[in-house]
Hints:
The complex is a heterodimer of chains A (396) and B (479). Chain A contains 14 helices and 17 strands. Chain A has 396 residues and is of the alpha+beta class. At the A-B interface, strand 7, helix 6, strand 9, helix 7 and helix 8 of A face strand 9, helix 9, helix 10, helix 12 and helix 17 of B.
Amino acid sequence: MTPQTEQELADVIASAKGPLRISGGGTRPIGNPVVGEALSTSGLSGISLYEPGALTIVAQAGTPVAEIEAALDSENQRLAFEPMDHRAMLGTDGVPTIGGVVSGNISGSRRISVGACRDHMLGVRFVDGAGVITKNGGRVMKNVTGYDLVKLLSGAYGTLGVLTEVSLKVLPKPETSATLYLNGLDLSRAVEAMSKALGSPYEVTGAAYNQAVSLRIEGFEASVAYRMGQLKTLLAEFGDLTEQPDKKTSEEIWDSATNVHGFSDAPAVWRISVKPSETPAFIDVLQQMHGFDYALDWGGGLIWLAAYDDHLSEAAHYHQDSARHNDTVAGAEVLHTNLQHNAGRAGGHTTLIKAPDAVRAAVPVFQPENPTVTALSKGLRAQFDPRGILNAGLMG
Amino acid sequence: MEMPIPNQDILARKAQIVERLQSILPDAAVIHTESQVRAYECDALTAYKCPPLCAVLPTSTQEVAAVLKICHDMGVPVVPRGSGTSLAGGALPTADCVILGTARLNGVLETNYDDRYIRVQSGRTNLSVTGAVEEMDFFYAPDPSSQLACAIAGNIAMNSGGAHCLKYGVTTNNLMGVTMVLMDGTVTEIGGAHLDAGGLDLLGLICGSEGQLGVVTEATLRILRKPEGARPVLMAFNDNEVAGACVADIIKAGVLPVAIEFMDRLCIETTEKYAKAGYPDCEALLIVEVEGAPEEIDEQLAVILDIARRHDPVELREAKTADEAARIWLGRKSAFGAIGQISDYMCLDGTIPVSSLPMVLRRIGELSEEYGLKVGNVFHAGDGNMHPLICYDANKPGDLALCEAMGAEILKLCVDAGGCLTGEHGVGIEKRDLMSHQFAPQDLEIQMAVKDVFDPQWLLNPAKVFPLVSSQSRRIAAE
């Protein structure tokens, strides 16, 4: 079903006889597998309001991200949180929508300096599980009127309500962008270097590690040159920094980091959020048991971890069921359990982003939470979706 | 202001309640004599006062949990209170409530410069969070005007903003995790030193919930490295609308100042009398501040001043020295105090789309004449967060009511212009009954359903946020 108006969508939900499987452009099949009738928001499309002077844009949930980015580009503005495009990594096709971005709280490398998608969210309209059309927030940058359901709906993967319209804060595009590289550092020195750069006054807007450390600097031409110079001096103890001053090349580097192009051919990929200083130990401990590849973003606070078939077969040997010791699905389950266990102990969380359906059906895709948070989340779901029909079970 | 009738049964059990609280707290932490509880009878919205049943000042999460459990078991409402600087009556007591003050929860628990966060007890004042990391050249970004006094607990409850949030965001954008106690005494961690929620974003929901969902006792806050420098410019115009247009042009130009502040003639003149900042004689002035290295500041200011020149300014004044910079900010920072010297006033904080600024300012001027009350405008122009100061005489019968009626009209105007009732002060009791102008019944219903989950008995911070008529059935059912 692809309703064309908010009211039609509300009617569909109100009269639904069973569970609904909700999607925007369908490019991010993340979460525990969901059953039910397909319901797409792609029919609700179009920018309703764009005020460059107020740094705000309002769009229907099914509006393609590309359409929004093109509109912003024409005014030299952008979505500063740099939403990730999952298609290359997940091997999906289709058209990513702004509603999908918000539903997953999808952010990219710049999240470390400007905040996540949810930090740029100003307002939502949504239809709850009873078919009631509701609004929260608005289209102004400061708004504390009533409870903030905007944040709650951002990253709820459609399980609390189906977004019909979102309003976002946008920001000016900088004049230029440049990247600095630092080669030859091991993991813990790399994290130290990134922390030092991010703790400097030079406004680093990206800090990633994939064999080399990459640091992004954006702004006016002269200011970027000045800050690159300062960072070179600041980080001299870590080695010589090389410059990539070309704007286009720099943008491609960060496009690839944000969209995790390096793991497109991996069958299983996880996304782990811990505080950066925990990351070296987290990786070390895991390497003592398992083989895997990884890349870091957010100054080391975001770990992208990929396992290939040989890694998964190896990991399968640790599975409690000896009959499955050559089964890559079993291997993914083992790795997943360890990752969530270790992330939990480090005070963070692990989400399984990419894996065969059999794995996603067998494990909690999202990090299990403490009993109180679990109970509160369950209570909220019961209020927003009393029949439990909206992407039921997607988040566990 | 209508408040629910105090529960006579609770009032009758005061001695028993105090005794239970004394059994788990040191005697000095339970304040219950008639003269002592008066210290808690109001917050910064001083027009409304009501002494509480008693007040407690716990020093740890465990003590807060024990207090809440007792109140929960005895069915006693609890009003959490940070430093009591709410301009919206967010910490106004009811006669049958226990005030839970965070004043003694003021420690620093952890600072981590590598991962750039600080963990504090929630009663710590906003400015002293920066104070704790200043020696390493770090700071905590949200800067409400009351930052010398206001507590992080209250900042989280109201999702407080400040002058510099155009660049750094408000509390919710700088809050990473909390330890929170639910009304039944359950203690839970939400978020932490890592980024983003692993499941539903409960942290985002807690922030700005006006102390109605739980009591935050500890908070993990993002700290940032101080910029190399900052410099303000002052721009004077002979027309409010021109100043407004200049703001929009600056934002569109691709420079992002850390602050754009606006003052109108009444504020300028009044402030000059008291602060003597040497402001020019004009209808409207803007203070625009940019940050960075000296060369970056020069470059950004060049762009900004260029735009300002196209708007026919009366004067452009660039701060050349730290002293000149301080003088530019002096008037703005003294504005509320200066108005307070000449009159009682009510400060609103409705927010509007920046494009509506000229229309809303014009209409406020008309309302000022209709009601015969002076209005000064001083506000964060970059984000559309208005601060009309309506002057009235508290000793003149009927003047407060007149002022409130006019305030309600201004707030409705903000909503009708595409904005909202409150940008940073919160709803409290002050804007409670205007909520139905901004929200349809179903919008309020789902918010109240959230409270049902966290506080099924509706004991936390009663009679705030929602119109009394909307929450009535729930409050009665909970009794």
